[in-house]
Every structure is written in C-alpha cells, then in structure tokens.
Amino acid sequence: xxxxxxxxxxxxxxxxxxxxxxxxxxxxxxxxxxxxxxxxxxxxxxxxxxxxxxxxxxxxxxxxxxxxxxxxxxxxxxxxxxxxxxxxxxxxxxxxxxxxxxxxxxxxxxxxxxxxxxxxxxxxxxxxxxxxxxxxxxxxxxxxxxxxxxxxxxxxxxxxxxxxxxxxxxxxxxxxxxxxxxxxxxxxxxxxxxxxxxxxxxxxxxxxxxxxxxxxxxxxxxxxxxxxxxxxxxxxxxxxxxxxxxxxxxxxxxxxxxxxxxxxxxxxxxxxxxxxxxxxxxxxxxxxxxxxxxxxxxxxxxxxxxxxxxxxxxxxxxxxxxxxxxxxxxxxxxxxxxxxxxxxxxxx
Length: 348
Ligand code: SF4
Description:
single chain, TIM Barrel, ten-stranded mixed beta sheet, two-stranded antiparallel sheet, binds iron/sulfur cluster
C-alpha cells in the first residue's frame, strides 16, 4: 500500500474518495479526510477521529500525509517566515509565509535548485537538482499553514521556475483553487515564470485566470540573455507578444517582474528602453530591488536610483510598483537559506 498511498497529495482533491476506495477504504472516508486536511488543517491521521481507528493506524504507519519535515525556520523582523523543508532522499526546498495588509501570502517553490541559472540568484547557482511533484509543491502550503495559520494568497515565486515544471505546478494549483481543496480565488494566485517558449500558451489553454508574473529583468535581448540564461534563445518581443495573447485569452493583465541590479540594469537609459518596450501593453511593472546574496558580486541600487527608474516608467504611462522586499533581513533571497544550511552556517 505504501508506494501508492504516498501519492495521496498528488491526487486532485476530487479524486480523494476514489483513492480511498482503491486502498481498502470507502469513498465517504476520502471526503472526510479531504475536509479535515484542507479545511481544518489536520495533517496527522491519528487526529482525524471521524475515521475508524484501524484505518487511521494503518494510514499513519503506511501512508503519512506529509513527506517533508521542517528542518529550519527563520523569522524576519517584518514578520516574514521562511521554512526549509527536507524531503526523503535529501531534497530541500524553501517556502515563505509573508504578512501583509491583505492577509498572509505564501511563496512556494516548484523545483530543487533552478535550471535558469540567473547569475544574481542563489537558487540558480548550482543549477537544477530535480523537479518537485505536485504533491510536494502542495505540501509546502500545508506545512506553512500548520506553522503560521490560514493564508489568503499564494505566489509561485520560490526556488525554481514554474515554467520549467509546469504540469506539476498546475496540478498543485488545481488543489489550491478547487473548492474541495483550499478554495482560493484565481485572483489570489500568482504564477511567476521567465516564460520559456510555449508556457504562456499552455496557461491560456489551462483557462484558470490566475495572475501571471513575467520575469523580464532586462530591457534588451543582449542583457536578458546574460541575466536570464535559461531562455537564451527567446527574444523579448516574442515573449511579450505571447503574454499579450494570454491577456486577450484570460482578460487578466500580467505583471512584469524586474529585479533592479545596481550598475547592471538600473540606468535611466535602460528605464527609457524598458518603457518603450512595454508602452501600450496591458500590464503592471513590479520593480524589485535586488536582495543581497553574499558572494554574488551584485549590489542593491541606491533608493534614489530605484525611484528614478520607477518615475521614468510612470512618466511613460506605465503602472509601476517599487517593491519593499519582505524578509530581506533574514535570508530572504530565494535559495539563500537552503544554500547556507547545505554548506554550513558560515556559507552565507
Ligand atoms: S531568479 Fe528565478 S528563474 Fe532565475 S535562477 Fe532564481 S529561481 Fe531561477
């Protein structure tokens, strides 16, 4: 039973009754378990007293719901809490819970490491270790809720790029959106990607109007190829045209994510170039001052340079947010906590 039982979180919430039938239980027990897990937050079979004792004991021994254990938790002064989860086999991923005026937001990872290898990012330094399964992505939300309580938003912006592990990511999001799962509205879910070819078309075909955040980071192809090497063969114009088609299909404006790196992509001339590229499109620009990662050789731009960049875009008629980086004080950059713990406390 155990190999198949381990896959319970891999199943769409509507399939939980069938899973129970396939594993010696009854369909109604699957509905009970689903309610206990997603609505009540119970993650321990023993605590599900609505289920028969013998079944609970069997599942507890053979099919624990969660496969990860929380290896470390860091809390920043601003309230952002980052958890490092260790899965059997040694894979470690980070997941973050961030407080905000509109409630708590969870930031989930989709891969162990990242194949895109952006040189300014801790997650991409060692490339891709492996993809996460849908259940492993979903499990991060369950672990964070257990640690921090209910959440109102989910952003898929942690380690890895959702576009390089899209089908597993979409299955996890199905459980987050489904009324039998977490039941979050599509407007409360954001999927971030550098948009390898075909990903935005697949999102349009998927048909769930989640928010899409397009990681651009550069105003021209030459610089983007250096900063986002994983999509080297893809031009900005082609990428934006695909995003525009997604907007026409979903009716949902997309977000352009742009990490500001001092002396690399934050000059006024680059802001004007970016404005020319984006002007007239239905999007919002999110400027993210770089979170320092020791040893990477980049710097966070001065506040004045950040504001000048934002002002130039706004003067071109674009909607712009200059983001305050939550959790900057405590290992906030993605991949940083995992990297430090993998190498020992002196590594970062
Ligand atoms: S910034 Fe995002 S896409 Fe780039 S290496 Fe880091 S996790 Fe991957």
